[in-house]
Structure formats: C-alpha cells, structure tokens
Amino acid sequence: PIVAGSLALGRSHGVAVVQGPVSRRAYVAGDAGLSIVDVSAASAPVLLGQLPLAGPATDVGVSGDVALVVLTSTASLCNVASVDVTPQVPFFGGSGLPRTSGTGRSPRAP
C-alpha cells in the first residue's frame, strides 16, 4: 500500500466514512472535536470544516444525517454529542458544517 493523499488534522481517535449521493465524507473524531473531510478524491482530501465540542472526541458513528460523537469521559461517565450533519445546515463558520443538536450524559456505569 502507498499513501495516496493526506491532511493534517492533529490527534485523531476515530473515523467514519460515508458515501453520499455526490461525495464521500470522512467524519473524524479528535482533539479538535469533529472534523468533516471530503475524501472523494483520495489524492486530495479537503477539510470542509471542524466543529469544536465540549471536549476531545474519541469516536464517531454516522447514520443518515446524524453523527453521534463520543467525548472524553471519566471511568463512570460517557458524554455523547448528537450532531446534525445535513450539508445545508449552516454553522458558526458558514462553511456548511452543522451545530450540535444536543448533548447528553449516560447514567453512571454499574
């Protein structure tokens, strides 16, 4: 294998790649929060934007227009941010990235 392209995002912990009708996007959980990258052209990934969250993101899963992002947690708590990743939703940077639609905390682990 060879590296076809790269993009510096800082320390990252999880990624979910989703093939959409027009492009392929990578949702990257990392110390910067949630980064969304267009990886349609493997040799030239494009950062679409970053969404800072309440703490470093450790994992991400995407279903439809929702990304569930796991944030750094203590041994007994897990924080999850639910993010609307609909491309048309404006965000603070104006680049088409979304805002968080809510956050929650899980009950204490047994």
Distance between the termini: 43 Å
* Strand line-up in the sheet with most strands: 1-2-3-4
Strand content: over 45%
Mean pLDDT: 78
What is the string of helix and strand elements? Answer: EEEEEEEE
Inertia-based shape: globular
- State the helical fraction: under 10%
Write down the Rg: 14 Å
Largest sheet: 4 strands, antiparallel
By DSSP, the count of extended strands is 8
The parts where pLDDT drops under 50 for at least 5 residues are: 89-110
Enumerate how many helices there are, as a single number: 0
Return the structural class: mainly beta
Q: Your description of this structure?
A:
This protein has 110 residues and is mainly beta. It has strands at 12-19, 24-30, 33-38, 46-51, 57-63, 66-71, 79-84, 100-105. It has no helices and eight strands. The strands form two sheets. A four-stranded antiparallel sheet has the order 1-2-3-4, with no helix packed on it. The chain has a four-stranded antiparallel sheet with strand order 5-6-7-8, with no helix packed on it.
Concise account of the structure shown:
This protein is mostly beta strands and 110 residues long.
Q: What structural keywords apply?
A:
47% strand; 8 strands; mainly beta; 0% helix; 4-stranded antiparallel sheet; 110 residues; globular; disordered C terminus
